[in-house]
Amino acid sequence: MPPMLGMLSTQRWSEQGLALLQLLLVASFSKSEERVCSLMGEQEEPQLFKTGDIIFGGIFSFHSSWTNMKSTYVHRPLPLQCTSLNFRAFQFAQSMLFAIEEINNSTEILPGITLGYKMYDVSHFATCACLSDKIKYPSFLRTIPSDYYQSRALAQMVKHFGWTWVGAIRSNDDYGNNGMAIFKDTATQLGICLEYSLPFVRTDPPEQKQKIIETIKGSTSKVIIAFLNHMDMEVLIEEFAHHNLKGHQWVGTEGWISDSQIAIAKGNYILEGSIGLAIRKAHVTGLREFMLDVKPLNSSGNKLFTEFWETAFGCTYFSL
Ligand SMILES: *[C@@H]1O[C@H](CO)[C@@H](O)[C@H](O)[C@H]1NC(C)=O
Ligand SMILES: *[C@@H]1O[C@H](CO)[C@@H](O)[C@H](O)[C@H]1NC(C)=O
Ligand SMILES: *[C@@H]1O[C@H](CO)[C@@H](O)[C@H](O)[C@H]1NC(C)=O
To answer: Which among 272, 197, 284, 206 is positioned nearest to 239, based on CA atoms?
Structure first.
């Protein structure tokens, strides 16, 4: 799931960096003559923004919830008010910032070109194999392997432990549905049988949640493959805890298995002994220091900084 890098626009480029940039530029120059797209509605404000000759776009799940607002259906609805800042997503964004600044600061990579960024809050399912389709998503650049590999690896892992009778719950979106479809294909080939495969989204009505609980209570398999993003997972485990439904072996995707907020979430005991696949750990010199130094985010006037501060310290931020 983690961060996705894609180029949104190019404003200027120089001869020197051309070879390196070729890959990025394909996106904005192909087919742009015939079709002119115009934005419907209003432009969304990025959470973090800096201008430059080349602007990198990033999409992160900064928030996992929102304020329900009553609509009068008389005026245009107000923009969505997102709440519950996710520190992991915040760190993903900081890692992207770090990479952009490193290149921007370097005199060897792309000399004479300044880099900027626009980082948005929508959702990000960058492991989705669907994004490998260069015709549909020409400006998408991968930063981590596709679920084409993760799904197959999960099936191999399940097989390795000899679990041939399993159930599955998936986020009811491209991430969960596509990921689970690949898992199912591989699992079938390996002789693993799926007792059930249930779609779930955190906004599902209580009946859908009840249906999942009842299916699992009535099932005989003890292993649950959870192809879910961390936001759906958080709601789901609370539901499991509410029914004290424990004793299952959970198998998870990178979407939640290494999420520290999931590890401390209410009802986390449900997940005891979970296993899954995570992104390989790497040491990047200077990244830790960069992440801990959040002051530059403040000086560039980003509202996200204030929110980070308030969430981290449980207080209201005043700038005198
Ligand atoms: C990139 O470098 C220029 C100066 O060369 C600076 O003005 C700009 O803020 C830098 N951008 C980022 C994203 O660090
Ligand atoms: C880039 O340079 C600026 C200005 O010198 C510095 O504050 C920043 O930490 C540098 N960023 C990285 C990632 O090295
Ligand atoms: C954030 O910026 C404000 C205004 O520039 C300043 O007063 C405040 O000290 C800064 N806070 C931190 C933690 O850097």
So the answer is: 206
